[in-house]
Write a sequence for this structure.
């Protein structure tokens, strides 16, 4: 057991992590991650998976194209809403592949990964790749750290009682009822991602001489223009609005349900608290058990602990890394948190309810 009394590892179940933070980093702690990384490399778990990603890319491009062909053939039929649901799933899966490209997990060179990411994100699903990569990398550097993780700023969902107290009027009411409103709010997450990327690009107009800015802007413009033109030229206005609402709403719910179980309800790291890399990533992340279908549905991100420890590891390899990481955490007396999908949903809803009511206490440190 570590000198600071870290809690015993829990390889399964739905228990929350309970290891204190804020203690000075020892030499042994500083070397723990290096030891784990050597074992992972020796096992060949960081090798590229070109065949897998080639097949996955080809399948997704085919499914994306099939969706738009079906859209064109159906015309004004209300069956277009089924196509909207189909494309929501395909867009999310393309987003997962773009996520891997953003982590440099697909190819060996940054140029190839970024090119793939730009095509997948900007052109195929209308999401700013550079904006998302910057935001997501900051999340990985400071997961669940108050004031540093952009995913817990409290702009929509409140993550601490202090964020609830800082709101007024409607914002305070939403925060207090955020557990019940969580899934309805996710209906807006797809549009939020699109709009946030566009706003970020417009805010970077000082980079007009940058080829990267123009690549992003042109590809995103082609997607948005083509998407809106196709929907409003093929469908009557009422049908078109319904198509966009179903497509973007289901996309937001899908993405939210895939990412919410990973960190929500896990310990928060306060400003100034010291955690070495291994503990920062493990204690703030939650894995979701569920087998191959869940792994497919979540793009491999149900292995969130392994992903945060080795973000460049190809997503299909994460499952092979899990037993090694779990055993290493056990040897260091470090909690390895896993849950079922249903169990994680219960934890997340309880967390959102308790924060909204001002009753939540961070399990790391007794605050």
């Amino acid at each position: 057991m570590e000198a600071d009394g870290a809690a015993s590892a829990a390889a399964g179940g739905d228990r929350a992590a309970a290891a204190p933070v804020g203690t000075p980093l020892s030499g042994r702690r500083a070397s723990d991650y290096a030891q784990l990384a050597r074992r992972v490399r020796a096992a060949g778990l960081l090798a590229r998976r070109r065949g897998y990603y080639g097949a996955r890319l080809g399948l997704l491009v085919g499914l994306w194209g099939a969706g738009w062909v079906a859209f064109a053939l159906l015309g004004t039929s209300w069956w277009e809403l089924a196509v909207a649901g189909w494309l929501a799933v395909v867009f999310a899966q393309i987003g997962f592949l773009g996520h891997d490209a953003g982590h440099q997990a697909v190819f060996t060179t940054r140029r190839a990964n970024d090119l793939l990411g730009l095509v997948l994100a900007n052109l195929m699903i209308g999401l700013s790749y550079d904006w998302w990569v910057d935001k997501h990398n900051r999340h990985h550097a400071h997961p669940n750290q108050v004031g540093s993780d952009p995913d817990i700023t409290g702009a929509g969902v409140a993550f601490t009682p202090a964020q609830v107290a800082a709101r007024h009027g409607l914002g305070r009411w939403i925060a207090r009822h955020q557990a019940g409103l969580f899934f309805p709010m996710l209906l807006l997450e797809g549009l939020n991602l699109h709009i946030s990327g566009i706003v970020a690009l417009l805010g970077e107009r000082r980079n007009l001489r940058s080829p990267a800015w123009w690549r992003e802007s042109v590809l995103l413009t082609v997607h948005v223009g083509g998407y809106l033109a196709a929907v409003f030229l093929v469908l009557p206005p009422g049908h078109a609005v319904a198509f966009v609402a179903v497509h973007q709403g289901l996309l937001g719910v899908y993405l939210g349900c895939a990412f919410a179980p990973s960190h929500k309800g896990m310990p928060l790291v306060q400003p100034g608290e010291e955690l070495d890399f291994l503990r920062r990533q493990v204690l703030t992340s939650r894995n979701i058990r569920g087998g191959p279908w869940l792994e497919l549905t979540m793009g491999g991100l149900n292995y969130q602990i392994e992903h945060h420890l080795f973000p460049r590891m190809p997503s299909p390899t994460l499952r092979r890394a899990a037993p090694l990481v779990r055993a290493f955490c056990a040897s260091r007396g470090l909690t390895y948190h896993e849950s079922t999908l249903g169990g994680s949903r219960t934890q997340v809803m309880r967390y959102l309810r308790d924060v909204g009511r001002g009753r939540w206490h961070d399990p790391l440190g007794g605050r």
In short: DSSP finds 16 helices and two strands in the chain. The beta strands are 287-289, 338-340. Residues 237-263 form the longest helix (27 residues). The two ends are 23 Å apart (CA to CA).
